[in-house]
UniProtKB/TrEMBL annotation:
Protein's UniProt name: Purine nucleoside phosphorylase DeoD-type
Residue ranges annotated for the Nucleoside phosphorylase domain, each copy included: 21-230
HAMAP family in the record: Pur_nucleosid_phosp
UniProt binding sites for a purine D-ribonucleoside: H9, E184, M185, E186, S208, D209
Organism: Shouchella lonarensis
Quaternary data: Homohexamer; trimer of homodimers.
Gene transcribed to yield this protein: deoD
Active-site residues, Swiss-Prot/TrEMBL: D209 (proton donor)
Keyword Glycosyltransferase: yes
Keyword Metal-binding: no
InterPro entries noted in UniProt: DeoD-type (IPR004402), Nucleoside_phosphorylase_CS (IPR018016), Nucleoside_phosphorylase_d (IPR000845), Nucleoside_phosphorylase_sf (IPR035994)
One GO term describing the cellular component: cytosol
Amino acid sequence: MSEMKHTAHIKPEGVEIAETVLLPGDPLRAKFIADNFLEDVVQFNSVRNMLGYTGTYKGKRISVMGTGMGMPSMGIYSWELINVFGVKNLIRVGSCGALQDDLDLYDVVLAMGASTNANYASQYKLPGTYANIASFSLLEKAKKIADEKGQAVHVGNVLSSDIFYNADKEAAGKWRDMGVLGIEMEAAALYMNAAHAGVNALCILTVSDHIFTQQETTPEERETSFTKMMEIALELA
């Protein structure tokens, strides 16, 4: 499918990139998924150490690739995967900081929507405010898979923020009051790129910390322990 195409950021050297790609922010999480869940794995990217792999999961071809942090980085990699390599289903598997009281560490969130404080949508010159939403087909299937596995998930709105260390100490509370489940940094750009190209996208998140209780996981746990989210995402291939 990916033929011999390449970009400045992705150079597959002839290795196929599957139509369904899992997109963790951390390239080492991409390696963890490839090493522990996929068979017949071949690496298709190492440019800038943004590792990418293609293999099979239960007999289906699937790829996994890191995207880095933030909407600019997600914007680059998802745009190229969609528009150069023909990817049709893009599933972000990442972490989020919880905002609501009923979310605990390691809980899984399906991002039905992705609000944002970023200016990413300005490129489309829309005469209004765009609502970033997941592809319903992927969202519906992911919820069904979770139900079949007996895995409780939270479905709702998240915030894709451009700001990690926010000088406005009241910002998180304002998003919380609007029912936003948690904060991450990439989903909105992914949803916009996918919508503009007419392909499917979904963001699945694991709660890595809680903004208000100050509970948090370690970097090592974020890299290797978020397996419930990964198993749901892999079943979407």
